[in-house]
Amino acid sequence: MTNRSFKNKIIMTPRTEKQYKDIRKERRELIMDSALMVFSKKGYHASSVAQIAKEAGISKGLIYNYFDSKEELLKCILDEFISMMADMINPNNDDEITTEEMKSFFDSMIDSMKTNREHWVILFQLSMQKDVISLLFSNQGLGSRNEKTMQLAYKYFAERFEKPQEELLFFRSVLKGFALILVLTPHMCSDDMIDSMKKRLYKLFIKPKAN
Amino acid sequence: MTNRSFKNKIIMTPRTEKQYKDIRKERRELIMDSALMVFSKKGYHASSVAQIAKEAGISKGLIYNYFDSKEELLKCILDEFISMMADMINPNNDDEITTEEMKSFFDSMIDSMKTNREHWVILFQLSMQKDVISLLFSNQGLGSRNEKTMQLAYKYFAERFEKPQEELLFFRSVLKGFALILVLTPHMCSDDMIDSMKKRLYKLFIKPKAN
Amino acid sequence: MTNRSFKNKIIMTPRTEKQYKDIRKERRELIMDSALMVFSKKGYHASSVAQIAKEAGISKGLIYNYFDSKEELLKCILDEFISMMADMINPNNDDEITTEEMKSFFDSMIDSMKTNREHWVILFQLSMQKDVISLLFSNQGLGSRNEKTMQLAYKYFAERFEKPQEELLFFRSVLKGFALILVLTPHMCSDDMIDSMKKRLYKLFIKPKAN
Amino acid sequence: MTNRSFKNKIIMTPRTEKQYKDIRKERRELIMDSALMVFSKKGYHASSVAQIAKEAGISKGLIYNYFDSKEELLKCILDEFISMMADMINPNNDDEITTEEMKSFFDSMIDSMKTNREHWVILFQLSMQKDVISLLFSNQGLGSRNEKTMQLAYKYFAERFEKPQEELLFFRSVLKGFALILVLTPHMCSDDMIDSMKKRLYKLFIKPKAN
DNA sequence: CATGAATGAGCGTTCATTCAT
DNA sequence: GATGAATGAACGCTCATTCAT
Predict the structure, then answer these.
(1) Measured between beta carbons, which residues in chain A are less than 8 angstroms from residue D1?
(2) Do A180 and B180 make contact, defined as CB atoms within 8 angstroms?
(3) Backbone angles phi and psi of D173, in degrees to 5
(4) Who among residues 55-74 of B has its Cβ near strand E, under 7 Å?
(5) Domain residues of chain C, as ranges?
(6) What is the model's pLDDT at position A14?
(7) Nearest nucleotide, CA A46 to C1'
(8) How much is the pTM?
(9) CA distance A183 to A194
(10) Does residue B68 surpass a pLDDT of 90?
């Protein structure tokens, strides 16, 4: 990995520059995007590396120049997405979800479901299988983060509703179900429909803290 | 136990000819049940025929005595389940869903999610994959039946709510999301929780036809 | 692995018997023999499973019906051979190598080199690579057994020669070198040559304990 | 460092044209040395070009600037070594091995085994495989040279021992076996041990021609 | 001269499916 | 009806080799 032979740049490497990095970055993204498409369309297990390579227009071997394994490729896709999502859920990282935050949480979630449809599909796919789900939480203590979020959510409802437990379940049901529909059958959800759903969510769950 | 002719059924086994069918049926169900368990736990693609055979306590080969392929086995499992469910949705097969029917629909659905958890898991799994979803509707004109149901549902809401389109979307979201939670994390849903959710559903969606 | 369905032997399994076992044993030996040939001819790393299958006249896949991996196949070959050899080295398992035992050790070794030429070739091959040699000693505490043997050998020489350390080195050199020649170029070693070499070994190393 | 024309060698690098050859030679040797290390440690087949490049601190591609293939690289390493060894065996190239030459042959061999340990390891490795052994003798009529040497050695023993055939076999055994031990487990051979072995060899095989 | 991204053939392995018994 | 040995196509992956720069 170290280049001990860089004595004379002019003679030794006259043609290539540090945009090897650019190539790598670009290629890496190409592969991740292609894998994302294939995974979300066929499911992780039913997707073959050959299909991903074909989708990307490259050779199978090249994929392993960028990722250690098919599984690691999946992990990278998810990690990137989850990192991106993480901020959205409780941005200022304090111990409370404010009314305003809850509102913008809806917006961000629904936005993300339109922008990152394929990621959501994969997440839903994986959540169906007990075996694979550990992938999600193996890396960065995602598990504990998730638990924290759950507690904050519970607190939000506890401060606003009489039966927070049940309200939380209802909340999660609506959100999860709508996500599923939005993500799997986006053609069924016009922008107007989505807006009206948003408003309904506001009306149901957004309200000031009970004093 | 010794020296009987194995070659001539007529002479050899006067007692077993009566209910070959029963044996076949029993075996068939054993295989389907075992496959159901394995599929729902690991996912269709990640499940092997060997695992199913092991789960059933039979040989791999025998499975092919009852089903043409792994895929057909899946189809049979789903067909059976979907047929069973079909009646529930609009039992008397007329052109309307009555208020009462809607109520009992809730009950049946939620019952089924507890009783047939594994079927639901598989259904959800498959619904994530564009390719496989066609399986579901290939056989018996399930597609058209589904469409009919949708129309009836729309009619139900049209006769009761101002914005039926949106109301239907909301209805489907809640139901689908709750199903997902109930089916994937049943331990999170006590009977009380389920009851309270049922009541909430009644309150939201059960009301008499607007005249 | 358990057969829960053996209710009626006569009807359920009229054609196959417990000579499945025989088939398995036979096939296992065929595969091990074929692998032995290929490994010894080309070396472990340069041998492909396809070549072994071809040598055995079976499909690649079948090999994995009998062995978990190419590496395990190697291990089994070696284990079998080493177990066979183990007795020869110090049969009555006491703490001493007698003069007589040493004599019969020569005989057995040289016999084995003619009978099990390929095994010896593989052993020599593996002994060239630090990485792979651990294979040999991973299983059955072969490592410690080997050390024990070395100690006994040292004791043998200590009781008979002035400079046992050097004598042992000389002994090992002659034996190892002769083994190499015998095993790699057997055509160069007529039976007469082998006999004369045996006698030379006797003369050099076989003598009664110094009192 | 900036703005020089890279395209025209004549203008650009007036100072580097003198000893391109030196650079090439240096690089070539670096690659051969690195390959030697890797080959001897892991074995030829288990060694990858990438590992060699890493060991040498250069790129994979560069290796192919100096050698046509991995196999040719091996051949070159061996050729160089064998040429070097060839002189040692019968330096003055006449038709006889004198007593003195035999003595210095021992010394040179044993020296070489310490100095060129890796070469010897590779030679031993390859000698285990029927297929590859032809590599050694394909190039420069090494085969016939080897045969010549054998004849000279036989003559040496014929002139000094009663049963030269057997003596030669014994001689080769001791030498080969000791080489193996010295080369594979050098830590087991202290300088004293080596000296005593040398003396033993002298005593056994060095004696004046019988008149 | 030197780089490392890229290829593709072939590896070890798995598994749905077949078939003699 | 029932078995499990056997097959072969396809999988995930490796690596010697090529080539644009």
Answers:
(1) 10
(2) yes
(3) -60, -55
(4) 60-61, 64, 69-71
(5) 1-67, 70-211
(6) 44
(7) F11
(8) 0.88
(9) 12
(10) yes
